[in-house]
Task: inverse folding
């Protein structure tokens, strides 16, 4: 079990899945850069970032709920947690019956090729399970394009992937070493590409680079 001071943000799971170096630059070196993709994500989150609740018949909705899991060493804020009234679930204050928690996470763009969104949502479910002493089998991701929900099952495979990502994140942060850059296609969509400079690794030595550059200048330029 982790202590409160060891907890790491759930949002870092998407970074470690996307690229270990990006994760280290953000969470160890504290560097961050905004690009169109992160800005769009921020706008999409503006509505859900407002704390509050709502009640509609057999549905209760909690927004911007602070959550944590001491077994995985994670904390964060759930965009939306719905509570559906049913035959099983948890007891809520001042309302009768049992209510099943159902986390919903809002994402910009469309479903991604990797599992980072599913892992982030599963981490929220694991937080709620630990906090509410219950089990949660399903949640949903709401994408900006198309504007609709995608159901996510918290099966054994996704739970294992989430635990593995959390362990990898803690190892990276504890070691405190930023991995070297390796250029791959996804770097073109990375908010840190200007800071990371993944293509620079092809230049073996700075003096060789400067010599090559100077040799390319003609007399007129000088
Ligand atoms: S530019 Fe590429 S290597 Fe660098 S942090 Fe981003 S994804 Fe990782």
Result:
């Amino acid at each position: 079990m982790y202590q409160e001071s060891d907890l790491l943000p759930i949002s870092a799971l998407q970074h470690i899945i996307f690229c270990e170096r990006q994760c280290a630059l953000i969470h160890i070196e504290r560097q961050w850069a905004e690009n169109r993709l992160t800005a769009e994500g921020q706008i999409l989150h503006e509505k859900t970032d407002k704390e509050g609740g709502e009640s509609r018949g057999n549905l209760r909705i909690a927004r911007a709920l602070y959550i944590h899991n001491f077994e995985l060493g994670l904390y964060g804020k759930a965009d939306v947690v719905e509570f559906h009234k049913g035959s099983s679930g948890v007891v809520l204050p001042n309302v009768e019956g049992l209510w099943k928690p159902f986390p919903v996470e809002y994402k910009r763009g469309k479903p991604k090729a990797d599992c980072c969104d599913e892992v982030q949502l599963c981490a929220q479910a694991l937080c709620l399970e630990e906090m509410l002493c219950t089990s949660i089998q399903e949640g949903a991701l709401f994408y900006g394009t198309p504007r609709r929900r995608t159901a996510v099952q918290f099966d054994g495979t996704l739970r294992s992937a989430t635990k593995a990502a959390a362990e990898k994140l803690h190892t990276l942060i504890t070691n405190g070493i930023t991995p070297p850059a390796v250029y791959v296609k996804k770097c073109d969509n990375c908010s840190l590409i200007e800071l990371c400079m993944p293509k620079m690794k092809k230049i073996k030595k700075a003096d060789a680079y400067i010599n090559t550059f100077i040799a390319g200048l003609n007399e007129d330029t000088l």
Summary: The first strand starts at residue 8 and ends at 9. The two ends are 64 Å apart (CA to CA).
